[in-house]
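In the lab's daily routine, each protein ends up as an entry in a very long ledger. A line of letters takes care of the sequence, but it says nothing directly about the fold. The three-dimensional part falls to structure tokens, numbers that each stand for a local backbone shape. The outcome of that step, for a single protein, is printed below.
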Amino acid sequence: MEQHVLVVFPHPDDETFGCGGTIAQFVKSGVPVTYICATLGQMGRNMGKPFFATRESLPNIREAELDEACQAIGIKRVIKLGLRDKTIEFEDPELLIDRIEQILQEIRPSLVLTHYPGFAVHPDHNALGEVTIRAIARLPVQERPVVYAHAFARDCQEVLGPPDIVNDISSVSELKLAAVRAHRSQSQMFLSKIASEKRKKQSSKNQFSHMLQRESFWTYRF
């Protein structure tokens, strides 16, 4: 059983779409979870469908959605770094590494969930994953937590091989779905596709329904 799980992602909704079910399982088993969310996703392109957000209102909306989603999957502590969306790659990496290392030293997680640097598509994903890995690498080997790295670039399996962690989250799929619904400004497209797939015969290619059934990770090798 894990002692403490630290989740490190850049945007509100990253915690839900990529590993909301896995987080919910840890919480249900009594494992404390802390979430470092680096930005408020203020530069996100999705404004709801139909639109209900503006560029000015989006940060407050997404912060409220984040709080609701975390409540749905059971995250009680969220550390918001206050960085600006789409700029993490331009931050001083040493300062970010220092901040993350300080949190690592404080909570001593046995497991970290973050993006696999270089294989997570968005520059913010890759940049934050990189500084998180570098912060963990500063720790003595015997004190380093295990890292489950989330990757979804087109070539990730070609380069990294198949994920070594494939987690069945069907028992908590309703909790993850509640969190997806909480991120309303970003998830309406997903919700419509999931509803459409449920009306059809399910197949192995129904990717949106599968996000409620399993989550995959690669154990990062230092």
About this structure: The helical segments are 14-28, 58-73, 93-107, 123-137, 156-160, 173-182, 184-199, 207-210. The longest strand covers residues 33-39. DSSP finds eight helices and seven strands in the chain.
